[in-house]
Amino acid sequence: MNNKITIKPYAPNIGAIITGIDLSKKISNSELKIIKDAFHKFLVIFFQEQFEISPENHIKLGKCFGDLHIHPAAPKMKNFPEIFEIHTDKNSKISNGAEDFHSDVSCDIKPPLGTMLQLHILPESGGDTMFANMYMAYDALSNPMKKFFR
């Protein structure tokens, strides 16, 4: 493993923070393997210490995980329909079309593997995106409930 790349668990049940990979540049095969392995192990990965990531690099990384989903009703970035743009400010009441909870396109017959978020301006506090480990949620169900959902 590359000595400068670090992977640190984020929470006990989901997520990891990756540092030492610059997503604004070409990603090597060894870096991509590290990213994919971390994603499969931790389910959510956060890249810290990043510079501006071009739409081309964002899309290129996403395609390493499979075909990209183009949301039929979402506002798209000019010339990059794969990128769903959300613009909010301190007065915004809703930032994603839902006030409380949502799950990205989970209603599709074959939902996407995941979602890639790139934040440009962060609030000093709040504005968090929360994640849930649905494998753990399923494992915690009783056997009759598991059978019901199969």
Can you give the helix content as a percent range?
10-25%
Report the C-alpha radius of gyration, rounded.
17 Å
The backbone outline, from C-alpha atoms, is globular
Oligomer: single chain
Per CATH, the architecture is 4-Layer Sandwich
Strand residue percentage: 5-15%
Distance between the amino and carboxyl termini: 39 Å
Structure, briefly:
The protein is α+β, with helices and mostly antiparallel strands. The chain has helices at residues 29-42, 55-63, 134-139, 143-149; strands at 6-9, 16-19, 45-47, 76-77, 80-84.
Describe the overall structure.
A hairpin with a 6-residue loop joins strand 1 and strand 2. The chain has 150 residues and is α+β, with helices and mostly antiparallel strands. The N and C termini lie far apart (39 Å). The model has no long low-confidence stretch (mean pLDDT 86). Strands 1-2-3 form a three-stranded mixed sheet. It contains four helices and five strands, in the order ββαβαββαα. The protein has a single domain (6-149), classed as Clavaminate synthase-like (Double-stranded beta-helix, 4-Layer Sandwich).
Question: What attributes characterize this protein structure?
Answer:
150 residues, alpha+beta, Double-stranded beta-helix, two-stranded antiparallel sheet
Secondary-structure map with pairings?
Blueprint: E1 6-9, E2 16-19, H1 29-42, E3 45-47, H2 55-63, E4 76-77, E5 80-84, H3 134-139, H4 143-149
Parallel strand pairs: 2-3
Antiparallel strand pairs: 1-2, 4-5
